[in-house]
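Anyone? Bumping this.
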Amino acid sequence: AAEPWPENAALYQQLKEEQILLSDNASSLAVQAFLQMCNLPVRVVCRANAEYMSPSGKVPFIHVGNQVVSELGPIVQFVKAKGHSLSDGLDEVQKAEMKAYMELVNNMLLTAELYLQWCHDVTVEEITHPRYGSPYPWPLNRILSYQKQWEVRRKMKAIGWAGKTLDQVLEDVDQCCQALSQRLGTQPYFFNKQPTELDALVFGHLFTILTTQLITDELSEKVKNYSNLTAFCRRIEQQYFEGRDKESSTTVAARSAKRSLLR
Amino acid sequence: MAAPMELSCWGGDWDLPSLHPESLTVMAYAKFSGAPLTVNTIDNSWRAPKGDIPVLISEDIVISQPAKILNFLRKQKYNADYKLSAKQGADTLAYIALLEEKLRPALMHTFWVEAENYCSVTKPWFASRIAFPLSLYLPGKMSREALNRILLTRGGPPLYTLTEVEAQIYRDAKECLNLLSKRLGTSQFYFGDTPTTLDAFVFGFLAPIYKVCFPRVQLQDHLKQLPNLCRFCDDILTCYFRLTVSGHSPAGQDTVDANLQKLTQLVNKESNLIEKMDNNLRKSPQPPPRKLTMLKLSAGGEESSPVNRLSP
């Protein structure tokens, strides 16, 4: 017997306007989209120390009743245990495909976002360092920022991405988008009629890439090349995000304006 | 068409052309697409290739990662994927990402981090194929790199100890094997009747788990419970690599063994039946033995009457 979803469920992420980075914003938006698709209300709470509050060190995390769950994978399982699931209608082969595509997005898109914001020197200097430590006073902001950068660069080196150039990374993003575009085809969602967690994940990443202004527009250009992907993002935004109260929709649009080069 | 291409990679054992997943992937793809590749296995000499293994050398071009090597082969018109639709090509990328994320950590752990496996199998094998004194250093370095990679990519909180990380990666690997098995179903290859890039990658990852004899084999045991994946590996080995144990193709050897077994069973059954019949015969009341010899000795007399009685 599943407990009912409480009214005061909260999703924690970093500060939307000043602090949150591309990859974290993508993950957070994916979870928000997923919960919207399941019709589970959740309010978004922005905290500067969200990353440290999270049980796994990654944002976003949700606080439901007396449980705290972070990251899309565990959240999907948690929601399933509560009795809500988007992928019940899929057969075994389709479920395998869905998991494979989710890994593709994590493997390529998320890693490319991390590369861009932590290993690409210009972006690091001009966007990431100022944003990441912005709620904290000097010198804490620089120390935290460098610490995180060192951590991410170590991971990139271990998986072999440290030696890649930006062009190679963009090519990988292009390949990934091409695969997603071909899989989506002309269908409204990846598994035809009903959205699943894969749709939420893809929406989170692609929408963030499309609406975030970085040093160059090359990343969003790669996504814009595929019209069915932009149409997909627009469709999900209209269906699941503009139906909400006005402030969140204006925030979604405002985010795109605010996400410019900060000094 | 193209200049002769040479591939440097780790050699094989236990019926495999190579023990290294990436080398196996490239070799399998070359066989599937018909690319003429001379394979040089790394041996004790000092001709160590530069860069990560496997390395493809064609004229002056040196290419090192499997994805890049496969791209190069495709550009040289050795394409195993030309029959695939766009969606199937996308599926290929997705499943390869699944293999990398879920199966590779457990594979690396089985080979390089699990202490018993590493000390008794992996280290001696690799050390015997690397020149001294590099053989003292390189296996250790590969082991440390493997552990590092596993911990960095999978070892964050809430998993705090190595045993928890290990438990998680093996769970993920078993789930991945189940997913692969479900996707393969009963077909011979992943996309129909001809093998493609995805088959090369899956084979490259699965075959070492399947064939190499380790002391600690939880992944192999799980794989053996998925008969369609085992059949998939065996098929590729027999059709494309033709490596056999004792001169028979493994499939032939199996049928010979099966036939032998059946024959033995039949013979045993027959002999059991015959024994039973003998026993029955001995136990049942026997008619008195015929005194046929007496017949010849006596011309007539009393014995003739029994003879007359006995003969019809």
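Late reply, but here is one note on the structure posted above: Chain B has twelve helices and four strands.
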